[in-house]
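tool=predict chain=A
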Amino acid sequence: MMGTDHILDTCRQQGVAALETFTTPAREHRRASLPSSGRFVHFAAAVKALGVEAGSLWLHQTASLEAVAAGDNLVLATGTASGKSLVFQAAVIASLLAEDSRHLVFYPQKALAADQKQRWIKALEHAGLPPTWVGEINGDIAMATRERVVAEARILLVTPDVVHAWMMRSLALCESACNNDPGFGVIGV
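tool=predict ok
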């Protein structure tokens, strides 16, 4: 792994000077337990279905799930590999455990959606929900198959280009499956 000194040396060799360098001190790990009763019962089950014990969540994960459980909108902006996926996946699974709902999940790339589809399936299985509730629509999915996937999926994984090029033109199809469903949620990754 390239250290800061190596990067600074390379910059100097290229005639680029750093104006300032500083080190941010490390801080203590901040963990928080998610309540497992009341409105959190489905969230605790969802987190467990994702393979994580509710007591081992990071503080920002617990605070985010508490906000979602309270019905608040949420924007979670943290670094790479900091647990954002667990938050929105737990929120979706908790919703599916609590009510008849549907969720549209945006992934920026087809490969990421395909990779995450397996994680969704595994989590649904651990939560006792049908793995067939996860559907994926991308440019490789035949038009005839897309209609079936939209009709059957409770979690629909899509890329923005598919939504723009196909789904927006097919709103009549999506209207009955998505727009008229009071439990429908949209997530952008």
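The CA atoms of residues 7 and 13 lie 10 Å apart. The chain has a mean pLDDT of 84.
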